[in-house]
Design a protein that fits this description.
The protein is mainly alpha-helical and about 100 residues long. Helices cover about 90% and strands about 0% of the residues.
Length: about 100
Amino acid sequence: MIQSIDNSQTPRIHQGVADITQMHNNLTLAQAQNGSDQSVVQAQLAVMDETTLRIKSTLSEIEDLDYAEAVTRMNKEMMSLEAAMGSFQKISSMTLFDYIRG
């Protein structure tokens, strides 16, 4: 292109300008794609950070479990379930007359 300018070759100068414009456009598109890719990477890093935090929290809950308290809670819930099942069994076996008398 420099030789074209020195020799005043207008068609080659126009072609050089068109080539430079095309290179500029390609570079701009590459930068836009790079920015888009970086945005995706940042979003994935945020998801990974959140997942890591959730996993660490779950692990901490498991490691710090108070077994005595957990067994007590489970026994209490089992007693409640058994009581509910017994009540349901009594109610479901009653007839309307038993219910009215009762």
